[in-house]
Design goal:
Helices cover 70% and strands 1% of the residues. It is mostly helical and 303 residues long. Strands 1-2 form a two-stranded antiparallel ribbon.
């Protein structure tokens, strides 16, 4: 797979996109000295200078595939990253996973306090929709912009990420079967990865039905692969490598792909999903190179 999808220039592309997104987030977030300053500082702490930016990279890769303009693509990428960051802030709180480390630094409720962390997540979610509601796409194609906001709301809500988190909390100490585990992660992790791709696509020309079907097949494959690899890394790497607390799932008695399938079978499943993702992109030809490379990145990452 890597032989066919060389990544000699992928690192340079991904670094350039990450820099654009960092600059965009810096602009779209409220200034840290604006009142209420402590909340705005905590919001910026949660979002800036950290993370793999996988979701923004997916938005940009899909945007390139559909000839999206720079402003619309940047707003899509920043909006999904704000939602992702908010979910991490809330996920780390004592009422959820109770974690002290995220992206190699103290979690927001540790660096600030629990009440501030709760408000940071709330404010970041609202800011994501504000970002999507403005800019060139909202002015030139308001129906597409509105559709993008609906997609993001669905992916982040009770039928998406929040629903998956609810199932996750209900599953502590239980032994889920594989279909049940997949359902949970298609919502908790997969929904936001999928909407990152869809928002990037809708930032450009309107996708055709068969194109949307191919993108969704790709997204479902990488969404599950992302979680499978996460579970493998949680079981095999240390906290310094991961930038978050290693072994947390096992310590919390949470069902994972490793506990259900075993380590070797989980690794094999990740590779199967990687191939499924590549296969889903075949109708797009060489234009989908960045999405191919991102599928490889998701499966081969070490953190």
């Amino acid at each position: 797979m890597n032989a066919h999808w060389p990544n000699a220039d992928f690192s340079a592309w991904s670094r350039a996109i990450a820099e654009q997104v960092e600059n965009g987030l810096h602009t779209f977030l409220p200034p840290e000295q604006e009142h209420p300053a402590r909340l705005h500082q905590a919001m910026r702490y949660a979002v800036l200078d950290g993370g793999k930016r996988v979701r923004p990279l997916l938005a940009y890769a899909a945007g390139e595939l559909f000839d999206a303009g720079p402003d619309a693509t940047l707003r899509a990428a920043c909006a999904v990253e704000m939602i992702h960051a908010y979910s991490l802030v809330h996920d780390d709180m004592p009422c959820m996973d109770d974690d002290a480390l995220r992206r190699g630094k103290p979690t927001v409720h540790k660096a600030y306090d629990e009440a501030t962390a709760l408000l940071v997540g709330d404010a970041l979610q609202a800011q994501a929709f504000a970002v999507l509601s403005e800019g060139e796409l909202a002015q030139q194609a308001p129906a597409r912009a509105l559709h993008s906001m609906r997609l993001l709301a669905a992916a982040a809500g009770s039928r998406g990420m929040c629903g998956g988190q609810a199932i996750d909390l209900e599953s502590v100490g239980k032994r889920l079967n594989r279909p049940e585990l997949e359902t949970m992660h298609r919502l908790k992790t997969g929904a936001m990865l999928e909407v990152s791709i869809l928002l990037g696509a809708w930032a450009g020309r309107q996708p055709q039905a068969q194109e949307l079907a191919a993108l969704k097949d790709y997204a479902q494959a990488i969404g599950l692969a992302f979680q499978v690899v996460d579970d493998v890394l949680d079981a095999t790497e240390d906290s310094a490598q991961l930038g978050k607390t290693a072994g947390k799932d096992a310590a919390d008695n949470k069902p994972t792909y490793v506990t259900i399938l075993g380590l070797d079978a989980s690794r094999a499943l990740a590779q199967e999903l990687q191939q499924s993702a590549h296969d889903a992109l075949l109708p797009f030809g060489e234009k989908a190179q960045r999405l191919h490379q991102l599928a490889d990145l998701i499966v081969q990452r070490k953190a």
